[in-house]
Structure formats: structure tokens, C-alpha cells
Design a protein that fits this description.
The protein is an alpha/beta fold and about 230 residues long. It is built from nine helices and eleven strands. The longest helix is centred in the last third of the chain and has 16 residues. Bound molecules: adenosine-5-diphosphoribose (APR). The site of adenosine-5-diphosphoribose has 24 residues, from α1.
């Protein structure tokens, strides 16, 4: 059985990471467009760097929850038959035990050098515009895919969706493309599609099965179901 799991901010909500669209459409008091576009960065680089520096520092204050841990159990059972793609830029899947995580919107703990195009592991601040360890140019920006930029690894994602027997969407509002379109794409290629979300997403009608509740409850239960189908009774 080949499974593609897509996760969004909702899977990290019970860990204490705020979602994007639950609080008046604001993200930590900012409109997403004001901190998550290349234009915002060009206009006010210090403001954008300070915003992501705060998010990166906040990672030290949160822990993975049972939903992240359950997906690591699923990976241990399925190996490379699981393709885990996340829109999240936090590192809670990795800290929950997942070894292969496809971060389609980038990662907080990485910087992107505008001088040499390298992705540089980064845990500190970028707001003081440090030089790139590779090329020495002081052009490190958050390694985050902003609105108007192309998500990472779309070719790999497309292949995984085409081959999937099951597609599961967890904790995402279905408001942002291309991820919001994965359910229809996978469904057209024959996958059974399942939504696990606190409330119906914008695309809930496209799923074969939609279950609504907290990820910390729904995801471990779903993983147990899958594992039961793999193990002999
Ligand atoms: N369990 C499950 N789902 C939850 C929980 C929870 N405990 N808490 C909230 N949710 C759901 C909400 O109901 C909502 O549908 O998670 C979803 C979060 O939606 P968004 O805030 O829109 O986050 P996401 O879908 O990941 O956003 C997509 O938008 O701003 C961009 O690049 C950013 O990756 C992000 C993308």
C-alpha cells in the first residue's frame, strides 16, 4: 500500500504552534501577505527577518504531539511506501521521529542564500544579516516558500500522488494551492482520499472520507487502522 500524507498547520496546533487562518485571518498579529511574499521582503527585510527569527526561536518552546509521533510509527511500518509532505516550516515531524519529510514550503531551520542559491542549515537569527558560510555574501533569507514562489519538489510530489493508493490530508484548511488541489489530483489517479481536520476544510467534498476532530486523536487512530490492515491478526 502506497500512502501520501499531506500535513498543514493544524497538525502542530496542539503543540502550541499557531495556525494561519484560525485567529481573525492573522498570523501572530500579521497579515500573511505582509510577511510571506518576496515583495514584503524587498520592502522591509528587517521586519520579515525579525518575524521569522521569532518563529525560529519559538521552536525551542514546542514539542511534537501524538499526531506527529503516530506518523513516525507509520513510516517505520511502511518505509518508502509512505511519502510525507508538509506545508509546515516547523521541525516537529522530524522531532516526532519521521526521517523523510518533504517540506514543500521550506523550513525555519534553514536559510537560503541569495548569493549562491545554497540551502544552509540555520538555527540562529538572520536579522543581523550574517554572511553565508558558503560564499560569504550577506544575503541569507528565510528558506521559506512565499506566495508567488514555486513550492519545493513539485515533480516528486506529483509522482507520489499518481502512485498513491491512499491520500490523507491532515490539519490544513485547503485554502492554499497547489497543496489544496492534491486531493483531486490523487483521486483522479485512483487514490482513496481521507481528510483528518478539526473542521471541514474548503475542499472537504472532494474527499471519500472526512473525519473531524483534533489531530492528536484522529491521526493515531487512523494510523492504528492502517497498521491493523498490514499486520496479521
Ligand atoms: N487538529 C486538526 N486540525 C486542526 C487543529 C487540530 N488540533 N487545529 C486547527 N486545525 C485545522 C483548522 O481547522 C484549519 O482548517 O487546521 C487548519 C489550519 O489551516 P491554515 O491555518 O490555513 O493552515 P494551512 O492549511 O497549513 O495553511 C497553508 O498557507 O499561509 C500559508 O504557507 C502557509 O503553509 C501555509 C499555507
Amino acid at each position: 500500500m502506497r500512502v501520501v500524507v499531506l500535513t498543514g498547520a493544524g497538525i502542530s496546533a496542539e503543540s502550541g504552534v499557531p495556525t494561519f487562518r484560525d485567529a481573525d485571518g492573522l498570523w501572530e498579529g500579521h497579515r500573511v501577505e505582509d510577511v510571506a511574499t518576496p515583495e514584503a521582503y524587498e520592502a522591509q527585510p528587517s521586519v520579515v527577518q525579525a518575524f521569522y527569527d521569532a518563529r525560529r526561536a519559538a521552536l525551542a518552546t514546542v514539542e511534537p504531539n501524538p499526531a506527529h509521533v503516530a506518523l513516525a510509527r507509520l513510516e517505520a511500518a511502511l518505509g518508502d511506501r509512505l511519502f510525507l509532505v508538509t506545508q509546515n516550516i516547523d521541525d516537529l515531524h522530524e522531532r516526532g521521529g519521521s526521517r523523510h519529510v518533504h517540506h514543500m514550503h521550506g523550513e525555519l531551520r534553514s536559510a537560503l542564500c541569495r548569493g549562491c542559491d545554497q540551502h544552509v542549515p540555520w538555527t540562529g537569527d538572520l536579522g543581523d544579516f550574517p554572511p553565508c558560510p558558503g560564499c560569504g555574501v550577506a544575503e541569507l533569507r528565510p528558506d521559506v516558500v512565499w506566495f508567488g514562489e514555486v513550492p519545493y519538489g513539485m515533480d516528486q510530489i506529483q509522482v507520489a500522488l499518481q502512485r498513491a493508493d491512499v491520500f490523507v490530508s491532515i490539519g490544513t484548511s485547503g485554502a492554499v494551492y497547489p497543496a489544496a488541489g492534491f486531493v483531486q489530483f490523487a483521486g483522479r489517479y485512483g487514490a482513496r482520499t481521507i481528510e483528518l481536520n478539526l473542521q471541514p476544510s474548503e475542499g472537504t467534498e472532494y474527499f471519500d472520507d472526512a473525519r473531524h476532530g483534533p489531530a492528536g486523536v484522529l491521526v493515531p487512530a487512523w494510523v492504528d487502522e492502517v497498521l491493523a490492515t498490514l499486520e496479521p491478526a
